[in-house]
Specification:
Nonspecific Lipid-transfer Protein, Chain A, single chain, 5-stranded mixed sheet
């Protein structure tokens, strides 16, 4: 997917999120985000939109020292869905007026404005799923979008230590884990070394690994984000190889 497609998908995912939560009891707990309600979840997503949008507007060239931004929250909680829709609309305006290939600071590997659009997309998508699960709905994730999401997650995870400190434990004496989608192209090989871990650049194609996880792209995406449990996988996932290595990965890769 390209930056323009990411931007369009942000709008689509936000619209689905808003349609999901509008008119519901925003005090409903969100089991996949312990301690949060639907209102908390909606406010979080809108806050992320407004923060990322401000970063893009300013096109920051170094890590900001503050995350303060004027959220313009609604006076009443039931105004949160409409407020989120407005946050996404503001983001779209900034996307349209920004050269998304322009150099820009980002916490991940891609030091360009487009990083933030792609990150906003999957932040929104995963939390849209959270909202639907909280309401007993069955979320659907487009396969191509899920493939892109798995790639985005695994590409950036090695840089997530500042807010995901457990990732520092993802070390091993030259071991590999392969994630393979069973519904089309999608093959990722992660190498764990004594000094850290990374997605192997030349990763597509057949080959062996010390451990492997197979499942649909959508299920792999939710598994990586902790919305699926590899311990209770049923027929959703196939785990092969070194189970201790896989347990080590899932214990320390929370994002």
């Amino acid at each position: 997917m390209n930056p323009a497609q990411h931007g369009a998908a942000v709008a689509t995912e936000t619209a689905e999120f808003v349609a999901t939560v509008a008119g519901t009891d925003l005090a409903t707990p969100v089991p996949s985000c312990p301690g949060w309600t639907l209102g908390d979840l909606t406010q979080h997503v809108g806050s992320v939109h407004r923060w990322f949008t401000e970063l893009l507007r300013r096109r920051v060239q170094q890590a900001p020292t503050s995350r303060e931004v004027d959220l313009r929250l609604p006076e009443q909680p039931d105004g949160l869905p409409e407020w989120l829709a407005a946050s996404a609309s503001e983001a779209q305006e900034v996307f349209a007026s920004t050269d998304l290939d322009a150099p820009m600071w980002a916490w991940g590997v891609d030091q360009h404005a487009r990083f933030w659009v792609r990150r906003m997309l999957f932040e929104t998508l995963v939390h849209r799923v959270d909202a639907q699960l909280a309401l007993g709905l069955s979320p659907h994730i487009d396969r191509d979008l899920a493939v892109d999401g798995v790639d985005e997650f695994l590409t950036n995870l090695p840089y997530a230590f500042p807010f995901a400190p457990q990732t520092a434990q993802l070390r091993a004496p030259d071991r590999t884990i392969r994630f393979t989608s069973t519904d089309g192209d999608g093959d990722w090989l992660v190498a764990l070394r004594p000094d850290g871990f990374a997605l192997v650049a030349d990763r597509v194609g057949p080959g062996t690994a010390d451990a492997e996880v197979r499942g649909s792209a959508a299920d792999l995406l939710l598994l990586l984000y902790g919305r699926q449990d590899h311990h209770h996988r049923g027929d959703t996932f196939h785990l092969l190889g070194d189970r201790e290595l896989l347990a080590h990965w899932f214990t320390h890769s929370a994002f």
